[in-house]
Fold this protein.
Amino acid sequence: MKIIVCVKRVPKTAEADLFIEKEGKDIKKDNLVFALNDWDGYAIREAVRIRENYGGEVFALTVGPEDSKEVLTRCLAMGADRALRIEEPPAFDALLIAKILARAIQDHPFDLILTGVQTEDDGWGQVGVALAQLLGIPHASIVNRIEIENGKAKVKRELEGGLEELLEVKLPALFTIQTGINEPKYVSLAAILEAEEKEMREIGLEELGLTSEEPLYAILDQVSFPAAGKMAEILKGTPEEVVTQLSEIIKKKKG
Amino acid sequence: MKIDPKTFTRDYNLHVCIQCGTCTGGCPVKFRSPLNMRRLVRQTYFAPDPSLFRRPEWWACTTCSTCTLRCPAGVKNVELILGVRNYLANQGEVPSTIRDALENTLLHGNPWGRFRDRRIDWAKDLEIKIIGEETAENLLFIGCAPSYDPRVQSLSIALFKIFQKAGLDFGILGKKESCCGNEIRRMGEQALFRKLSMDNTNLIKKTRVKRIITISPHCYNAFKNEYPDLDLPVHHYTQVLIELIEAGRIKLTGRSETLLTYQDPCFLGKQNGIFEEPRKILRSIPGVTLIEMERSRERSLCCEGGGGRMWTEGFTEGTRNAEIRVREALHLKAKILATSCPFCLLTLEDAVKTSGLADQMVVKDIGELVGEAIDSNSNNPIPCPPAGRLQIIINDPMTLFKTNYLVD
């Protein structure tokens, strides 16, 4: 099984104070820490798990700036065999990223491509399915289980309301991986340091026959915070006073 | 970097074990888990097999070190636990909560994964020196729990006020401070511990401070015993407080008569021999009567907050040691259970709440008690529980002995 996994380095924003840059096109990132996109970590672990059972190799790919090498090193520490970083264009949309990945993948034989369902930062959820379309291979999204059998994959998709859909998909195919499909292992610092010895290549867009001015179908206009709503009423006072006020409100609303 | 179970016997002196069982006899979690140190030492000696290491009980150990300190033959029991955990961490096979704590530490510099920029939020209203921007003689190393945990932040603030009042020249590292790594090493991540120790050592050495003062006994232990290149005097804050009290640089004012007992933190007491300083401080607070629990000093019962247990779920069952400890303190009719460690503070306070004793006893850190005793505006700073209700709980003192906590 030759498995390709597409990953992304993303800023961790859960607890951070976010500020918007002057141009209003992005958030300020200089005080943020970056890590491997959560969904992609599950995808890498799943690829390594499949390789452990069926043999083959795991190839990790990213489109991103120089710093993205650190998440590729993490992928190598998690068990990927080799990695490739492709230069990031100055502006991009989901389709352009898919196009870049498709060009990079076309020279590499594969049985399976895995991506995360979406990324923690942009959250488009489109790159995986667009890539499958460009490569002309079947795909399944939000996959939470994979079994390989005679050149086919039996996959489960997570649907709304707790439903699951079972599909049989002919390989080669692309699946976008949902969190929880496996239990990611701890990646020790020793493993990360060792992984720095593994093969990692870097290429530019020209090598893929692309320029830095490819046409975009979606153009980012503005990043902003949602307008603050007016529905919330903050009760003030000591805990006793707040409880009294709250119980009055509940009584009034006949709760 | 590689860890090889075949060398465990040599690395941890397993061959000298005489199977006397002293280790198991003193273990504070032996009734709460299948952890049996005597058996694990023997089994590792005969067959250091990975299947043995995958038993969950290896994660129950709090690394309190009672076993190692009492072993008459010189087996390095706790180091064996750390060796096994290191082996498992390198295989990626650690419990998921430990995995998150370790990954958080690499990414954010603290096991809780809190944002680095928030590390000194507790000090935002204080005029505190940031060493690096300014110079100071003493570095107050805050540590992760006193930086981020709202309960422990009050200890950081208390120590700031005490040191400021005493005219001590001190500062903090600010946002650049990273986890000391003591617990990281105990969760099995020796490589990450080395990285943290190098990062902190380089940062501290650049500042030209003359002394490091720690809040947590865990940081104290790491700096004093496990940082290879620090070469600076390290003091726990209790050592500094008694120095200031004895020099007359801080004056402790009276309070209402209070019966108080003291929990020796394992990393301060039994592992580093600091028993007297905390007691001297407590005795110097006017109005406070210090009474000792039956098991104190070297025999103090571990609160189970060490060894990565702050970030571990499960592996033990039954009554928590902290709950047993709280009942021991209550049996003495103590109104305050004092300690000098952020983890003890958290585990004991939790135990007071889960035991339904919040109206009968308060858990306080020595730093907080001293902070309140130097604050002349505060007449009766500690909300002592009302007298008279104690008897309801201990009307049958023998109930204390029905639990299986007597480990000595």
